[in-house]
Structures are given as structure tokens and as C-alpha cells.
Amino acid sequence: MRSGYVRSISKVIVGSLLGGIILMLLMIFREFVLKVSSVSWDGILLILCLGGITGGLIGYLLDRNTKKTTALKESEKKYQTLINQSLDGIYIEDERGNILECNTQGHRMFGYTKEEMLKLSLRDLVSSEFRDLIPDLIPDEMATEDVYLERENVKKDGTVFPTEINTKFITLDGERRLIAYVKDNTEKKKIEEALKKSEAKLRDLNIAKDKILSIIAHDLKNQFNAILGYCDLIQEDGEQLERRTLLQYAAEVNLTANETYSLLENLLDWAMMQKEMASFNPVHIQLSKLVNQVIDTLSGTAHIKKIKLTGQVGEELAVYADQNMLRTVIRNLTANAIKFTPRNGRIELCALPEKDNQSIVIEIKDNGIGITQEKLDRLFSMQSHESTFGTDNEKGSGLGLIVCKEFIERHDGKIWAKSEKGEGSSFFVELPRAN
Q1: For position 420, what pLDDT does the model report?
Q2: Terminal-residue alpha carbon distance, the chain
């Protein structure tokens, strides 16, 4: 500050000296040209004083003007820096949407250089289907109020991304101009989508909690009551009961115990998935071996209902999956098929490669009672609270299908079903083929 003050004083002094000297030289030149010698020493001093005062005043005014110009340039530079540091794109457009000026973020957001950006208009930054909706002249109503909108824009490389736009008309150099503030909404939309998924998952977890409590309070309790009831009958009246009756009771106990064990397994599997504790170790799996293992496991249950359970899977077919998870999925789907297939029915497990040969579709097909379209639409949803009885009044919770869905999604695979009431059902699982 002090050095600036000294420089200003120095400029005024130099201006005074130069002013006095210049005025004195002018007077001497005048006398030389006109051959007049009428200036005394007092006059010379007066000329020097007048010239000095004039020169000093001129020096002062020039210094002041220089300061104002410098301050204005510094202010302009500061505000330009602030504008260029903005995370929003800032644009000045004419009434036809041509871009006249933009900040750094304004052209970086779209992947253009500033020179390229200033050759574009509003229509060049939107998708082709939206381009025709933009009028040739910006509507007058936009001149009277701020306008907010959200829309998709297009980058130089063709990437479509969501934006949030605020616009307002201003008068600049006597011309009406539109100033627009554009924010890239990509991250905001991702956060919103994540929140929606989180809310949906929380709702599902709350539904699941109620479902689990219902299963524990009713299904498991009823299953154990059935087992205990048959055991009490055998214990109390075993000596008087006929062999055929004892075998029937034993078969019922075995069937109920297997159902209870399967239910407990599904509960544990689902709980492990929710806590993300279930290990996931995908390996090369020969499908025919795994399908035969499941058939061997469930053949006893199928035999009780005299259901023909067969597998038709080529030995060359292999998938890349977690063995325990896939076995659980196929076992659950096959057990469901047994439950909803009448006595003397048939169930077939088969697999075929997709046309692209990159994945394999496993099908579990039965000729059971089928599923209505209404139930089919919410078959894999926790929001379905209905428990459906099997053809021999087997109890079902629906939790097994939820476990299947979560296990298959863990593999980035697909699971779906096709069925008609009274026409049987087919459940499909698509998984990546092992190389």
C-alpha cells in the first residue's frame, strides 16, 4: 500500500516537471518563431509554475485512471476465475439458442473444447427425438421468470446423461440474452436410484421378517407337532398297531421330517445371504452328475407318491457356478415339483445350451396342478404371503423359491417359470456355460 502511494506521488512530481518544461519550451519556440522577447524571469517562473500544476494534475488523473483500469482488469480476472471454477456449466445464448459464451465446465461437461462449443447451439446438445421439440426462437414466457427443467443431454461422444437446468433472460450490451446454468445429474440420479433400491430392499426385509416369524411360529411348529403326534401314537399303541399302519406312520414321519429339514435349510440359506455370509465359489460343474445327485436325494420322497423322477442331461454340458448353491436351487425346485404333482405323476430334469452357446438353461418340468397367472407373477417375491398345500396336503412356505432367486442372481443368472392351471409347470434356470 505504501509503495503504491509513493509511486503515485512520484508520478505527480514527474508530471509537474514535464508539464513545466513542456510549457517553457513552447514559450521559447514561440519567441524564436515570432522574434519576440517579452518574457522576463518572473514570467518564466510563472510559466514553470503553471506548467507544473497542469502537468501534475494530468499526471494525477492519468495515475488514477491507470489504477481504475488495473482494478477493473483484476476484478474481471477474479470473477472469470470464480466462474470457471464453478461445478455447473454456465452459458450465454442468444434468442435462437446459439451459444455465445461458456465457462470451463460448460464445454468440459459435453466433451468439447471451448472453440468447438461456441460454434454449437442448444439443438446440438440434445437427443434427436427431442431436437424437433425446441422452437426456433426461445419463448417469451422465459423472459419473465426463471425456468427450471430436467432433461437428457448428449455429449460429443454420443453419451446420453441427465441434467438439471436453470435459465433466465438478461440484457447484455443492449441485447436480450439467455443465461443458463446446467448441472450434470448423473451422480444424483445414481444416488436416487441407490436410495430407491435401498428402500425397496428395506421393505422386502421387513416383509421377510414377518414371513420368517410366520414360518417359525406356524409352519415349523405344525411340522414338529405332526412328527411328535405320530411318534406318540407309535409309542403308546405300537404293540397293537398293524405293520401296515406302522409303516404308514413311519412314512409320514419321514416325509414331515424331510420337509422340516428342507425348511430349516432354506431359512439358514436365506439368513446367510442377507448377512452376506454365504460363501460363493464358482467352479466347473458337470450338470449330469449334480442332477443325478439331486434325483438320488429326492427319490425316496418321489417314491412315496409314486412319481417318476428322471433326468435328461447330456454329460458334455457344464456350467460355471457355486456347487452348493446350484445343488440347493435344483433340489428346491425339484422338491416343489414333487409337492405339487399328484400321485403317479412324472417330473423331468433336463438342460440345453442357448443358441449363443454362452449359457445353459436347466428345466424342471412336471405334470402337476399348475399355477395361476396371478400367483405366477409374484412367485419369487417376498410380498407373497400365501402358503399353498401340495397334492398330499404338504405344507409350503414359498421361502425356497426366494432362496433360489437370490442364489441365481448371485451368479448373474436368470430364473423364471411357465405354467397353466391344471397343465403342469416348468421352472427354468439360466447360468453361464463353463469354458
Answers
A1: 85
A2: 77
Between CA 378 and CA 384 the distance in angstroms is 6
Q: Spell 371-392 as b/e; 16+ CB within 10 A means b.
A: beeebbeebbebebeeebebbe
Contact 73, 67 (CB under 8 A): no
User: Quick one: three-class SS letters along 7-20?
Assistant: HHHHHHHHHHHHHH
Q: Which residues contact residue 39 at a Cβ distance below 8 angstroms, ignoring those fewer than 6 apart? A: 27, 31, 47
Judge whether residue 390 has pLDDT over 70.
Answer: no
Length of the chain: 435
State the residue for C-alpha cell 436453470: 166
Which grid coordinates belong to 242? Answer: 398293524
Q: What is the pLDDT of residues 6-50, one digit of tens each?
A: 555 555 455 555 555 555 555 555 555 545 455 555 555 555 555
Q: What is the DSSP letter of 286?
A: E
DSSP secondary structure letter of residue 126? B
Q: Residue 109 burial by CB count (10 A; 0-12/13-18/19+): exposed, middle or buried?
A: buried
Distance between CA atoms of 366 and 419, rounded to whole angstroms?
A: 10
Provide the residue type at 340 as one letter: F
- pLDDT of 278 > 80? The answer is no
Q: How far apart are CA 95 and CA 278, in angstroms?
A: 61
The C-alpha cell of 270 is what? 436365506
Kindly report the CA angle at 154 between 148 and 158, in degrees rounded to 5?
A: 170
Does residue 301 contact residue 347 with C-beta atoms inside 8 Å?
Answer: no
List the alpha helices (DSSP H) in 275-354.
287-304, 323-339
Write out pLDDT tens, residues 350-366. Answer: 999 887 778 999 999 99
- What's the Cα-to-Cα distance from 64 to each of 22, 51, 55, 78, 171, rounded to whole Å? 22, 20, 14, 21, 30
CA gap 15, 25 in Å, rounded: 15
